[in-house]
DNA sequence: ATGGGCACCTGGCTGC
DNA sequence: TGCAGCCAGGTGCCCA
């Protein structure tokens, strides 16, 4: 999936086509997503104007006059802005038709994505209310990470990917941020020195910001709303580089499994 | 409270 | 050529 940079790239891409437009219709072709699309979803939106498109963690929030759509792209989802006559592809599960004649189309082969409509404050929705701070906010810093990690035995990589600790750091950028901070992914979170957490907070922000600038990372199927891939892949230091030389010290990059996810690191640069 | 494992689903690649 | 097996940008839930 899209991690935070890909979701942010998507948000920026769809915003100009959506903001200020009125929704004419919603076409749900496949309701069986991560959560079944509610039976009344398609009826709640038509006639409403899109006020804004925001992001919280990896969720896109389409803010309407009344309520909001909470959209997650899962592992393989993408949103594109298309003209009405664009041919349907496999896994094009849902369209939102706008009064401009354009439509927002959701494609998601694995169907791990989801859409919800809420009339309440989205921050209080069950998907959002337990989430930790945004990584690009000042709230994420070394002191915060050290406090949250105190006494915890979980590996620091899994700690960093825990959305109750900090949101938006997925499997690619967790490995990348730990590499840049010089921290072994296996190290118990509670045993990471405070100075290393300072570095980690900064490297997390850096890698996410740089990836956003590059339009995100395309490994397989991610495309932005204009159908373009992201270009950050060529700037990755460790992810999917097992056996290849470290870009800093030439040591072969190692691949291990943590929490059923692949982790990549340099055993020389990371301690 | 914390940590670990499973589940959801399709497609692409590898190796026999 | 066919097919079984494995892997993939996520995350909620259940259990010890």
Sketch the major β-sheet.
Answer: 4 strands, antiparallel
The number of distinct β-strands equals 10
Strand order of the largest sheet: 1-6-7-5
Average pLDDT score: 97
CA-CA gap between termini: 29 Å
Strand content: 15-25%
Q: Output the helix-strand order.
A: HEHEEEEEEEHHHHEE
SS class: alpha+beta
Description:
The mean pLDDT is 97. The longest helix is centred in the C-terminal third of the chain and has 20 residues, at 194-213. A hairpin with a 2-residue loop joins strand 9 (254-258) and strand 10 (261-265). Helix 1 packs parallel to helix 6 (194-213), helix 3 (142-149) crosses helix 6 and helix 5 (171-181) packs across helix 6 (194-213). The chain has helices at 4-18, 41-44, 142-149, 156-160, 171-181, 194-213; strands spanning 23-28, 50-56, 59-64, 68-72, 78-83, 92-98, 102-107, 114-118, 254-258, 261-265. By secondary structure, the protein is of the alpha+beta class. The protein binds a DNA duplex (16 and 16 nucleotides) through residues 1-3, 5-6, 32, 34, 58, 72-76, 91, 108-113, 127, 152-154, 158, 161, 163, 170-173, 216-222, 239, 259-262.
Q: How is this fold's topology laid out?
A:
Elements: H1 4-18, E1 23-28, H2 41-44, E2 50-56, E3 59-64, E4 68-72, E5 78-83, E6 92-98, E7 102-107, E8 114-118, H3 142-149, H4 156-160, H5 171-181, H6 194-213, E9 254-258, E10 261-265
Antiparallel strand pairs: 1-6, 2-3, 3-4, 4-8, 5-7, 6-7, 9-10
This protein binds a DNA duplex (16 and 16 nucleotides) through helix 5.
Short overview:
The chain is of the alpha+beta class and 271 residues long. The protein has six helices and ten strands, in the order αβαβββββββααααββ. The chain has a four-stranded antiparallel beta sheet. A four-stranded antiparallel beta sheet has the order 2-3-4-8, covered by helices on one side. A two-stranded antiparallel sheet has the order 9-10.
